[in-house]
Design brief:
- With 131 residues, this protein is mostly helical.
- It is built from 4 helices and no strands.
Length: 131
């Protein structure tokens, strides 16, 4: 009797395993590249946010000092204390609004969302194939 060779019936177990291993490595390599790209984008986004925050703080401080001097000189004859109290209230309100926006930004921040979404899709696809 002739026993069929593995090439006649299809790929052998070893060949199938090698093909599966190559696919897994390719998938892992793609996911790693995605992770690295997103990490680089996150780093650039954070650096840009820091520089913009520093610039906004510096110019805001300069504007605040200038406005304070203008209002103080303008109300020197009437009531300097009331003018400074009103300015202090405006500055405290602006600081509170900025702090609230920062907390909202921090709460909604999603790090590496593309990588996480892709890994979820991979898991769902694998569950469908295996289950």
């Amino acid at each position: 009797m002739d026993t069929p060779s593995p090439t006649e019936d299809g790929p052998s177990f070893g060949e199938a395993f090698k093909r599966l291993a190559r696919r897994i490595f390719v998938i892992c390599e793609n996911r790693l590249q995605l992770l690295l790209v997103e990490a680089q984008e996150e780093r650039e986004r954070i650096l840009q946010a820091i520089w913009l925050a520093l610039a906004a703080a510096a110019f805001g401080l300069l504007a605040g000092i200038t406005i304070t001097l203008i209002v103080t000189v303008a109300f020197w004859e009437h009531s300097v204390v009331i003018a400074l109290l009103v300015l202090a209230a405006v500055y405290v309100t602006a600081a509170a609004l900025c702090y609230a926006k920062l907390m909202r930004l921090q709460r909604d921040w999603q790090t590496l969302s593309g990588t996480i979404d892709q890994l979820k899709k991979d898991r769902e696809c694998l569950d469908k194939k295996l289950g």
